[in-house]
Write a structure and sequence with these properties.
The chain is an alpha+beta fold. The protein has a 5-stranded antiparallel sheet, with helices on both faces. Strands 7-6-11-10 form a 4-stranded antiparallel sheet, with helices on one face. Strands 14-13-12-17 form a 4-stranded mixed sheet, covered by helices on one side. The radius of gyration is 25 Å and the shape is elongated. The protein starts with 12 loop residues before the first helix and ends in a 7-residue tail after the last strand. 39% of the residues are buried.
Length: 400
């Protein structure tokens, strides 16, 4: 999904920016504006008014200490690609009026790239490293609203809830882990309102694609390293076996068609792998060796519905019992009902939320479920893997 421009085709930028400021004054003052807010802006402003945020001036800023910023940078996968992202923005014309900002999934600013002049202007707004730039803290803004809407956002001048942000434009897009679908953060390009160019949205979208493709490349390189370092061990193992990383991604398989991923291994915890049955993972120097722990290959699941749904796996004489979230229980029920034909992301969104507008959320939920259960849940379409049976015991209903 690309960034929708905040400027209508053919509109004069300075005139439109002035109209948006008048729109803000009219709406906040209870009047009828000549230009009505876009639906995206209306939804966000409604959230801001319900929170009691001030529209005039600048709300109080929250921030984390610099040592916490450093810790979050080290923990963020985005650290691997920030330099490349900065080069993409730096290669564009007129970068003196642009500020590249990268946040984590909590909306905390971790990196800023831009000229000293534009950074000084941002400092006066509290738009600095460590600042919490969510809607609940600073009102309607591209970063916070992109997090709230789970979608790319561009805002100009008076579309910001805070009056203090009216001299700015901001264009932002959420970034997701290409392996898991998990939200990693937001990339944003901001600058003086009257310097907004139609290409900014495309620039941010290019940046998002670059980040996600580079993260995938790093992931593939990690699997290649695991294959090389574990080759002597794997070649000496007889029978079906998998070599996987800490997240369950398969670097090598022999004697079984496992797909790209199984559940994330844990020391001493039985894994259920379609085609292998119950397996006890063995820790290697890097990654895990996964072999059958029982001769039975059938994987049987029993789901007990309720406020804290319980999932039981058995394969031969071994198995496990785990709690799952009500949402994950609901997904399993829908996949079981769908059978071998499975469900597309759109169909699962309709089943869970009543519409097809929650694709990002659906993919993230299934990704979290696959981290727990691995190849028990297939993708494209979503369905229970061949060789897996599920029995649902009706308790208190989940979902809805």
């Amino acid at each position: 999904m690309g960034v929708h421009s905040s400027v209508p085709p053919g509109a004069d930028l300075p005139m439109h920016a002035r109209d948006l400021i008048r729109m803000h004054e009219a709406v906040i003052g209870g009047g009828r504006p000549r230009v009505r807010p876009r639906p995206l802006v209306s939804r966000s402003w409604s959230r801001m008014l319900s929170l009691g945020l001030a529209a005039d001036g600048v709300n109080a800023r929250d921030s984390v200490p610099l040592d916490e910023v450093t810790r979050r940078r080290r923990a963020s996968p985005l650290r691997l690609v920030v330099e490349d992202l900065g080069q993409v923005v730096g290669a564009t014309a007129d970068t003196a009026n642009m500020l590249l900002v990268v946040t984590d999934a909590d909306g905390i600013i971790l990196w800023r790239v831009g000229s000293p002049a534009v950074r000084r202007r941002a400092d006066t707004l509290g738009f600095t490293e460590g600042a919490v730039w969510t809607e609940t803290r600073v009102g309607t803004n591209a970063i916070g609203t992109a997090l709230a809407e789970a979608a790319p956002v561009e805002l100009l001048a008076g579309e910001h809830f805070e009056q203090g942000q009216h001299p700015w434009y901001c264009t932002a897009s959420p970034v997701h882990d290409p392996r898991t679908g998990e939200l990693l953060g937001v990339i944003d390009v901001s600058g003086p309102a009257l310097t907004l160019h139609p290409a900014i949205g495309a620039l941010v979208e290019t940046g998002r694609r670059l980040v996600e493709s580079e993260l995938w490349r790093h992931h593939q390189q990690g699997l290649d390293r695991l294959r090389r370092t574990a080759e002597p061990v794997v070649t000496g193992v007889g029978g079906p076996v998998l070599l996987v990383d800490d997240d369950g991604w398969v670097a090598h398989s022999a004697g079984v068609a496992s797909g790209a991923r199984i559940a994330a291994p844990s020391e001493g915890q039985i894994l259920a792998v379609p085609g292998l049955g119950a397996c006890l993972p063995e820790r290697l120097a890097e990654g895990w060796l996964v072999r059958p722990a029982d001769t039975a290959r059938q994987v049987r699941l029993e789901l007990e519905l309720g406020h804290a749904p319980m999932l039981r796996m058995t394969s031969g004489d071994v198995g496990w019992v785990r709690t799952v979230t009500p949402r994950h229980a609901e997904i399993l029920v829908h996949l079981d009902t769908a059978g071998l034909s499975g469900l597309s992301a759109e169909a699962l969104s309709r089943a869970l939320y009543g519409d097809a507008e929650h694709l990002v959320t659906v993919r993230a939920e299934v990704s979290r479920l696959r981290r727990l259960l691995g190849a028990i849940v297939d993708t494209r379409p979503y369905r229970l893997a061949a060789g897996v049976t599920l029995t649902v015991h009706k308790g208190l209903e989940v979902g809805g």
